Amino acid sequence: xxxxxxxxxxxxxxxxxxxxxxxxxxxxxxxxxxxxxxxxxxxxxxxxxxxxxxxxxxxxxxxxxxxxxxxxxxxxxxxxxxxxxxxxxxxxxxxxxxxxxxxxxxxxxxxxxxxxxxxxxxxxxxxxxxxxxxxxxxxxxxxxxxxxxxxxxxxxxxxxxxxxxxxxxxxxxxxxxxxxxxxxxxxxxxxxxxxxxxxxxxxxxxxxxxxxxxxxxxxxxxxxxxxxxxxxxxxxxxxxxxxxxxxxxxxxxxxxxxxxxxxxxxxxxxxxxxxxxxxxxx
Length: 282
What we know:
Layout: H1 2-13, H2 17-22, H3 26-45, E1 58-61, E2 63-69, E3 78-86, H4 92-99, E4 107-108, H5 111-116, E5 135-139, E6 149-158, E7 161-170, E8 173-180, E9 184-189, E10 207-212, E11 218-228, E12 238-246, H6 255-262, E13 268-271, E14 274-281
Parallel strand pairs: 1-13, 2-14
Antiparallel strand pairs: 2-3, 3-5, 4-5, 6-7, 7-11, 8-10, 8-12, 9-11, 12-14
């Protein structure tokens, strides 16, 4: 950005150079310009030049995540724990590396993960992958308190349709993301609203379903109908991401998560809760 601005300024002001060389006192003008640049640099490095304050804080979202990869995404169910942090501005990585850390252990979710795992294997709360495509993960000392129990079953209805049954029990807010195989599409679901497509995952359609209960933990039963052209075949018919978000209640934050949010600087406006994320391929 600095190089681009320098090139544009030079292109716009190059015509002033002959006038500056012909003018008297050019040295004094150059020294005054250098002094102004030095003052601007000192201001930028001082607290007066800080981009954040208690009145205009940095937004930081830390989701304490338990992620389980189910076969065939892993040879056996594989569980890992981490803090997932969407990159909401250019300074997110620096703040997370400094205050969440440990320094050097904060990693960006790479393109390989996004190509292999639906929604980059991250527990997006809203279908904003196209708006917030980059995110970080930092080590967590243990698992979140949130727990989601889930079971999926896929059965063939006829030569061009399959039914995916999803049973889940857990937090009051559950997010399901579905990506049918390239040859298939979601034709119907038992959710109240008609299925609507979300951001594409490569060449595949995705569908984002939000399930919400008003009175705490709940049980969910969802039926999804996938259709395809006659004779179409696929090794797997769908990738599914199922996440239970514990936004409130006793399971919202583990002790380490709450302590981490509490010790962030005053110029940070943090939020976040525990998430139990399950990834399937059926």
